[in-house]
Amino acid sequence: MFRFVSLFKVIVLFSFFSLFIACNSKTPSDSKIISLTIQESEEKSPDVVLKKLGNLDEDPDLETFALVRNGTEEILAVFKKENGEWALKSKIGFNLLNIGPFIHDAKASSWKAGEDENSKESGYVVKRILMEELPGDSFNSLFLEVLSEEPPLGLFSVPYVIRKGEKILDGLASLKDHQFLAKSKRIDFSYNKEEKNLTIFPNNRTYAQNFNFNGWELVPDVPNVAAPGLLSVEAPANWTKGVASEVVIWFKNRGSYSGTTYISLSFPQGGKVEIDSGKEGLRYYSPGSSVYSFEKKYINSKFPLLEITKEGWARNHKYGVRFKYTPDADGIPNMLVRSSSKSYRDTVNLPTDFSSVKTEVDQQGFKSYPLALVSRGKAK
């Protein structure tokens, strides 16, 4: 009888501690990951290939990211505990028609069937995952090398960068036509932790190219082209219709030295803008003003517009703009931001036609980055 009671206590205690550990686990179980990521009707022998902790947003509480293989698809999913329960925060899927272990043969410049002994923590489609911090961020983003297949290239790999669940570099969309990819079949990359930029083809002097984070996405480093990086926004906590409030925006040139850079700040929700008329290089265009359009002709503006002309902008140097804005409605207003620099004979606009993030077209017909006027970042 005594032995039976003791055994019963052991079983109860073991069950309690097992439940306690499960409830306090730093990562979700594989079964939980699969159930949150894939609908039961879409399961094709799913398997969790990789599971890691990381700080992937401004919240200091850690997230879990996992690589889930489901049939011929591999899914990068991010999870976070909310009210004690695991929740799916984001997921991005990558597909191949024929899935299996492949290794890149540098001498033959091709992908061949086989296991990579030096890469134990990778999938069949997602070949590599790095976790690094972008400039201005206090959290990590995920850097991926992803295998793809398209004629006439066949199998090839390109980089992706995921920040807070969103693609800020889509290598398939922006780099698959790179002239050296046709030969190498792989866009290798490295990340410089000091400069905080990404380099593709880092071991090739001819084709090596840096990409810099401008606050929205990773953009190529082009000679004589500035890349205005959003450093900070100072704005009121609440916006009220008809009430003027001060806004201060700081940019940092994360690109190359530029002789002349133009930054356009457009206000598609209307309202009223006031500036310090003595600020060098800053000009205000009221609605109805004549402005230059994407179609290379002058049109009358419909909304307020600020244009910054920055002469001789060196890499890593800052520029700040201060203005007062009176909204036409309650709530957080949005503006549109874009820039242009002249590289030799060509004018380079940011965002480009190959932008990896969501853009909007401003009143002049140019692609632009949306920016909500809420406080963020630090002017450092």
TrEMBL record:
Highest taxon in the source lineage: Bacteria
Name of the protein in question: Lipoprotein
